[in-house]
Amino acid sequence: MDLAIVNEFLPEEAEQEKPEWRIKTDLDADWALDKIREEQAEYHRFEMVVNEKIEQLEASLQKKKEQSDRSVDFFTAKLKEYFDTVPHKTTKTQETYGLPSGKLVLKKQNPKFVMDDEQLTAWVEKNAPECLKVRKSTDWAGLKKAIKVAGDKAVDKNGEIVPG
């Protein structure tokens, strides 16, 4: 039964006659402190149970993930073995073999280069200068010394406004 429906059957005087509860004595205050402690203890107990349940669920999830990973690794290895025995389409970047439920794809890995930029730049300067990038940028610290501020504009030593 809905509380609003129950209230419809109560006389209006009964609702108005009910006084607001207040702490009036030391005994009431002591009882209220006990109620606060009980409520906090109940919350902490509940929190502990929930956290333990979360730990159990996370452990179950981790166990299932490990089982799933082992199964996926097993079938992936078996598919790789099978892939090596069948004729497949080869392109520059990958090899493929089509099946009704999907494609087996072996992607070719490009080699990874570990570069020493200093040595490589020195070599490129001598042997392939067209592959060298030169980046120009403003020396802001030097420019600030060479210009003056006039109002909201920057001007050079000749009084010309510096664009940009």
Structural description of this entry:
By secondary structure, the chain is an alpha+beta fold. The chain is 55% helix and 12% strand. The protein is built from five helices and five strands, in the order H-H-H-E-E-E-H-H-E-E. The chain starts with a helix and ends in a 9-residue tail after the last strand.
Weakly predicted, low-confidence segments: none
Radius of gyration: 40 Å
Shape: flat
Mean pLDDT: 87
Tags for this entry?
55% helix, 164 residues, three-stranded antiparallel sheet, alpha+beta, two-stranded antiparallel sheet
How would you briefly describe this protein structure?
The chain is an alpha+beta fold and 164 residues long. The chain has helices spanning 3-8, 12-17, 26-85, 117-127, 140-146, and strands at residues 89-90, 94-99, 102-107, 148-150, 153-155. The strands form two sheets. Strands 1-2-3 form a three-stranded antiparallel beta sheet, with helices on one face.
Secondary structure: elements and pairs:
Elements (H helix, E strand, L loop, with lengths): L2 H6 L3 H6 L8 H60 L3 E2 L3 E6 L2 E6 L9 H11 L12 H7 L1 E3 L2 E3 L9
Antiparallel strand pairs: 1-2, 2-3, 4-5
